Amino acid sequence: MINKTNEYLQSIVRELSKLPTEIEWVEFKCNYEDCERIAKYISGLSNSALLAGRPCAYMVWGILDETHEIVGTQFDYRKAKKGNEELEAWLARMINPKVNFKFYNVDMGDDIKVILLEIPCADSEPTKYGSVGYIRVGTNLKPLLEYKEKERELWQAFNNVAYELRNASENSSEDDVLMLLDYPKYYEKQGLPIPHNIEKIMEDLSHDKFVKRNDAGTWDVTNLGMLMIGKDLRKFEHLARKTVRVIKYKENDRLTGIREKEFVTGYAVSHEEIVEYIMAIIPQEEVLEGTIRKSKVAFPEIAIRELLANIMIHQMLNHRGTNPMVEIFDNRIEFSNAGAPLISIEHIVDTVPVSRNENMAGFMHRCGICEERGSGYDKIIRATSSNELIAPKVINQDGQFTKAVLFAKIPFELTTKEDRIRTCYMQACLAYVEFGTISNADVRDIFGIDSQDSYKSSRIIKDTIDAGLIKAIDPDTAPRYMKYIPFWA
User: Fold this and answer.
1) 167 forms bridges with which residues in the sheet?
2) Among 46, 113, 146, 318, which residue carries the largest CB count within 10 Å?
3) How far apart are CA 180 and CA 257, in angstroms?
4) Separation of alpha carbons 110 and 30, rounded Å
5) How do beta strands 219-222 and 244-249 pair?
6) Are the C-beta atoms of residues 457 and 448 closer than 8 Å to each other?
7) Domains, the chain, with CATH or none
8) pLDDT tens digits, residue range 357-368?
9) CB atoms within 10 A of CB 74
10) How confident is the model at residue 98 (pLDDT cuts 50, 70, 90)?
11) What angle is formed at CA 44 by the lines to CA 42 and CA 46, rounded to 5 degrees?
12) Rounded distance, CA 285 to CA 385, Å?
């Protein structure tokens, strides 16, 4: 299990507290200690998470049920007992089939402690307390047998295996598997030595759900295996449109394409290659640093890395429309993938991320390609602002596609009002999640505005306030000392 930092857990608690109401896969308590009832909640929340399409559910001690205020709790799961048995051990024994639930102590600061119980969704059959399964109906906990329709829906959901885990190839021999999957890269990307025997290799690939042994005793290769370390996605018709395409256009429109390249290997293998290819063809100029002439690229590499990883991980895999695509112009790069954004664009910096493809995200995190906590957009905003670039623009295209546009440097006079407002807001979000604020001086730095032209940064701040995106911490402070935070803070 990947270690989860207190910062990451704090983010989860805060996001859960923002929910307008309790929902089927979240339960709030303060100092609740009824062991049997907790076991029933684990069953009900686990089953409800599957129906809601969530990888896990949460039970949180320390949040008021009515207001969702984070108040802290005196409940200590480590001291709680059922009879003479510790609560955690008793729950592990009483929940069937076994569910890898996990308690976390979360320090929220200011002496406020919260207990977070993370409960995986039901896997192959309903999660039960003893022999009885439970389900959430609205915010009520009910025996599953009383709701036959939900029970049928639950069993149907078990048949809807995630696209990642469906078979790409079936009934393959070990040699066939190793012809399809680039297992040396599998170990290289994780910084591990290649085992000397094929049995260990197959065991490792199976552990990561890249392959699975079937009833015939041979092997099935999953879509996950091919999408991560496949040697050629085009070998399978349903994966051929998952290859990443990079197109370079002449100047700033799509009238003339200069070059196009398709990357056919799995994403964990191709990510670095694609980044290097993009960095080699994007616009660059030579600048003098002292007496040394150096090449300066138009776009920060870290932003390209993160946005490329996003279109791989967050695409809707069962969508047959188009490949993940990178389109390069002189003044911008557009990163596109199938599927609408899963979180509000206004909260893209501060919200705990949700991935459509959790298994892909997990493996690419282990390979160092993406962040577990989703600080990717934090890095992107930091990189663009430090290079005096306007913030990227994320677009929801009719609920079918997501496009993120990374801009090259634009003279301040040519930036639009919308560009300036978006950049100011995103910088405020980044500062806030790092426990800071922004000021007039910060806005001048982002846009490269001279101090004698501070009226320009004041105008940007006013426009962003008028758009309802930032607010002053203390409106009565003298203007030169004014500090600003996002509207939702």
Assistant:
1) 222
2) 46
3) 32
4) 17
5) unpaired
6) no
7) 6-159 (3.30.950), 163-231 (no CATH), 241-359 (no CATH), 412-486 (1.10.10)
8) 888 988 998 998
9) 11
10) confident
11) 65
12) 20
**What would the two tokens of residue 276 be?**
């290097």
Q: C-alpha 322: how far from its chain's center? A: 21
Instruction: Tell me: pLDDT of 289 over 70.
Output: no
> For the whole model, what pTM was predicted?
0.70
Higher pLDDT, 373 or 467: 467
Distances (CA, A) of 409 to 298, 328, 391, 448, 489: 7, 14, 10, 11, 30
Tally of CB atoms within 10 A around 445: 16
Q: Report how far residue 328's alpha carbon sits from residue 278's, in angstroms, rounded to the nearest whole number.
A: 8
In 3-state terms, what secondary structure has residue 183?
helix
- Decide if pLDDT at 345 tops 90: no
Q: Which of 231, 251, 250 is nearest to 239 (CA)?
A: 231
State the CB neighbour count (10 A cutoff) for residue 441: 13
Q: How far, in Å, CA of 268 to CA of 184, rounded?
A: 12
CA–CA dist 432, 292 (Å, integer): 38
C-alpha to C-alpha distance for 102 and 369, rounded to whole angstroms = 26
User: Residue 252 and residue 368: Cα distance in Å, rounded?
Assistant: 33
Instruction: Tell me how far CA of residue 79 lies from CA of 33, 88, 115, 438, 465, in angstroms.
Output: 11, 10, 13, 44, 49
Cα dist from 175 to 167, 203, 227, 470, whole Å: 17, 14, 19, 59
Are 428 and 470 in contact by the 8 Å Cβ rule? The answer is: yes
45 phi/psi in degrees, rounded to 5: -70, -40
Q: How many CA atoms lie within 13 A of 58 on its CB side?
A: 20
User: Is-cis flag, bond preceding 195, omega within 30?
Assistant: no
Distance CA 261, CA 184 (A): 24
Arithmetic mean of pLDDT, 396-406: 92
Q: Helix count (H) and strand count (E) of the chain?
A: 15, 23
Amino acid at 315: Q
